[in-house]
Amino acid sequence: MAQLTKGIMLEWAANADGSAPSSGWAKIPDVIKIPTLVGTPSTHDVTSIYDNMKVYIEGLADNGGTLGFGVNYTPDVFTEVGKIQTAQASDDVWFRVSMPKPLNKAYQFRGTASILANDEWTPDNPMQGTLNITATTSVDLVDYTQE
User: How would DSSP label each residue in the chain?
Assistant: First the structure.
């Protein structure tokens, strides 16, 4: 059965030893959009003159580099992003997009967050922006248990 996005969370945690944290994850509030986290792998043509059709091997997946998470501009999101930026000055910061029961999975990666970027603002609309996070490890799909 398909699942709704209800209950998905973008979380972060700092860890000085470089490994993925097992606890201490904090929710990043007011997220409105999660980008594609794992890109399509490239393919490489390795066809020889003896083949009857094209032969390919799979290359590396590419998520495009920086991941843009849409957010509503609120005091809470500015506070949490400030905590992330303070932590990443001295520790490794990990991010995960957690999917609750019945999936119990999370996309997890180490990365760095930039300052909040504003989207275009026009009259009589909510102030929204983008939290840009650059993955510095591969994005892995891991088992997840809600803390």
Answer: ----STT-EEEEEEETTSSPPSS--EEPPSEEE----SPPEEEEE---TT-SS--EEEEEE---SEEEEEEE--HHHHHHHHHHHHHHTTSEEEEEEEE-TTT-EEEEEEEEEPPPEE----TTS--EEEEEEEESS--EEEE----
